[in-house]
Specification:
The complex is a heterodimer of chains A (108) and B (114).
Chain A: E1 2-5, E2 9-13, E3 18-26, E4 32-37, E5 44-49, E6 53-57, E7 60-65, E8 70-75, E9 84-92, E10 95-98, E11 102-107
Parallel strand pairs in A: 2-11
Antiparallel strand pairs in A: 1-3, 3-8, 4-5, 4-9, 6-7, 7-8, 9-10, 9-11
Chain B: E1 4-7, E2 10-13, E3 19-25, E4 31-37, E5 43-50, E6 53-57, E7 64-67, E8 75-78, E9 87-94, E10 104-105, E11 109-113
Parallel strand pairs in B: 2-11
Antiparallel strand pairs in B: 1-3, 3-8, 4-5, 4-9, 5-6, 7-8, 9-10, 9-11
The chains are: A mainly beta (108), B mainly beta (114).
Chain lengths: 108, 114
């Protein structure tokens, strides 16, 4: 099984950088996902890490350390539209197990 | 074209009723899933199917019965609805069992049991 932990809420200022951490304990680990979910909408795919290191995609980057069971999502140049929940998910075989999500509020 | 579509979007029903939610994906994916998101926004897997075969059933009450007539469809039937079943139900699909190319979610069905 998988046990995934991430902060419940975070607040950051428009234009700033924010890092959302995720720790996991897993057997049969097959990679780490980050999803974004706006209120009342479906989760949308942001990133996938299966090897250690940093993956950069525009303003968003995701990092993985398998030995530490640790990942983070880095959001740069925050915009108001980045206010959403960010879900860390551990991939197993035929399932993706999510943490409880981090609600990010971006303030002016 | 919507990649993963589920119907209905909203469902309000009385306790004890039976209801179904339909899901279809046009991505050619082999694996489909049902997730439940409760009032605290925790997204929890219920079932996964691969090529019409049930792979995972995460201790879901047997009032919930998924059915996959083909690999593009995964429907969810719920018998004897209870207040605690109120939640948003998301259908999803992925290409590989490990889903390394990402899971695509439907827009969700908000079920309210009164």
């Amino acid at each position: 099984g998988q046990n995934i932990d991430q902060p419940t809420e975070m607040t950051a200022t428009e234009g700033a950088i924010v890092q959302i951490n995720c720790t996991y304990q897993t057997s049969g680990f097959n990679g780490l996902f980050w999803y974004q979910q706006h209120a009342g909408e479906a989760p949308t795919f942001l990133s996938y890490n299966v090897l250690d290191g940093l993956e950069e995609k525009g303003r968003f980057s995701s990092f993985l350390s398998r030995s530490k069971g640790y990942s983070y999502l880095l959001l740069k140049e925050l915009q108001m539209k980045d206010s959403a929940s960010y879900l860390c998910g551990g991939a197993g075989s035929y399932q993706l197990t999510f943490g409880k999500g981090t609600k990010l509020s971006v303030i002016p | 074209d919507t990649a993963v579509s589920q119907t209905p979007k909203y469902l309000v029903t009385q306790m004890g009723n039976d209801k179904s939610i339909k899901c279809e994906q046009n991505l050619g994916h082999d694996t489909m899933y049902w997730y439940k998101q409760d009032s605290k926004k925790f997204l929890k897997i219920m079932f996964s199917y691969n090529n019409k075969e049930l792979i995972i059933n995460e201790t879901v009450p047997n009032r919930f019965s998924p059915k996959s007539p083909d690999k593009a469809h995964l429907n969810l039937h719920i018998n004897s609805l209870e207040l605690g079943d109120s939640a948003v139900y998301f259908c999803a699909s992925s290409q590989a069992p490990r889903g390394s190319d990402g899971y695509t979610f439907g827009s969700g069905t908000r079920l309210t049991v009164v």
